[in-house]
Write a structure and sequence with these properties.
mainly alpha, two-stranded antiparallel sheet, globular
Length: about 140
């Protein structure tokens, strides 16, 4: 069977998901939760809400809500009300989240290192640009 881009992307997604799951199981985190925490770490000290994560990750609001609920239940984030908007909540990292930051960073860096091993920097930059184009092509707002 000839491998298509769709099949290769699916295989890559499943492999990364499985590796991430194994790497984060001791922390009780799923791969999407660790990616969300990583993004929140990068925005530490700034106000971030679920809508921003929804736009960034391109997944449904219910998926973001479920991930945040899991992170909240595990003690990694807290939700803080936004003055003047009863529906909107800021996502606040807890001390527990900061305590595992290095482990999450190391796991994501190891995954990226393995993923990109053997690909020259110029080709990686081109690949990243092509993947961003593909993502824009399939986002709902394009249809």
């Amino acid at each position: 069977m000839e491998k298509t881009i769709m099949l290769l992307l699916r295989q890559l997604h499943l492999s990364l998901e499985q590796q991430g799951k194994e790497r984060m199981k001791d922390l009780g985190l799923s791969t999407p939760q660790s990616l969300a925490l990583n993004y929140l770490f990068s925005r530490a000290g700034q106000e971030v809400c679920a809508t921003e994560l929804h736009a960034l990750f391109g997944v449904s609001k219910s998926t973001i809500s479920a991930s945040l609920k899991g992170l909240r239940e595990k003690g990694y984030v807290e939700m803080s009300g936004v003055p003047g908007d009863d529906r909107k909540k800021w996502i606040v990292l807890t001390d527990k989240a900061y305590a595992v930051k290095q482990e999450i960073d190391a796991g994501l860096m190891e995954q990226e290192r393995r993923l990109c091993c053997g690909i020259p920097p110029g080709r990686l930059a081109a690949l990243e640009a092509d993947l961003e184009t593909m993502l824009r092509n399939v986002r709902p707002e394009r249809q």
